[in-house]
Design goal:
alpha+beta, Aminopeptidase, seven-stranded mixed beta sheet, globular, binds coenzyme A
Length: 164
Amino acid sequence: MRTVLLDKAKHDRNRFNCGVEPLNNYLKFMASQQAKKDNTRTFILEDEANQSNIVGFYTLTMTPVDLNALPDKLQKKHPSSISGGLIARLAVDERYKGKGKGEWLLIDALKKLLQASNTVGFPIVVVDAKHGAQQFYEKYGFTAFRDAENKLFITIADIRSSFD
Ligand SMILES: CC(C)(COP(=O)(O)OP(=O)(O)OC[C@H]1O[C@@H](n2cnc3c(N)ncnc32)[C@H](O)[C@@H]1OP(=O)(O)O)[C@@H](O)C(=O)NCCC(=O)NCCS
């Protein structure tokens, strides 16, 4: 399995349904435009039997990090402003849920962000876990920010050591 960049001429965005309308709509109406402006990158996991079918997707970008919302230990380590890699969206189509695709997409996204951090340097990865997915991310080592329940982070150091 591998992810490819969203190609609106190839991928059937209208058929994608993860059960969360704002995420479906993002993929349909925003993802391609945002990529064209170099604001985000959206990666697609295709169904191998029919590559126009979208199994799942995630969207990556960067985000400023509120230092006050980090645990004390990390605040001490990073006293001035930092940016984080952001998993802005991640979703699996209803037809493919519960088969390990979400886990696979998350690991793939973290590998890409780790690789990016080797070039541009940023110390944490943030995820927007709206729509009740907070526990999904906690299972993979993410911690909630102090100020927002549905915003979580993991350090690049922890990602690196989990892949070593
Ligand atoms: C959350 C989501 C990506 C999980 O995808 P999935 O392919 O069904 O998940 P997987 O089959 O890879 O599950 C991996 C593990 O996470 C658990 N899990 C899945 N969804 C979960 C959720 N919403 N909360 C807590 N745990 C969850 C599974 O039980 C499984 O655990 P196990 O290995 O102990 O059995 C998917 O349900 C989805 O697209 N939801 C709607 C969109 C969304 O909420 N996205 C996240 C916010 S942007």
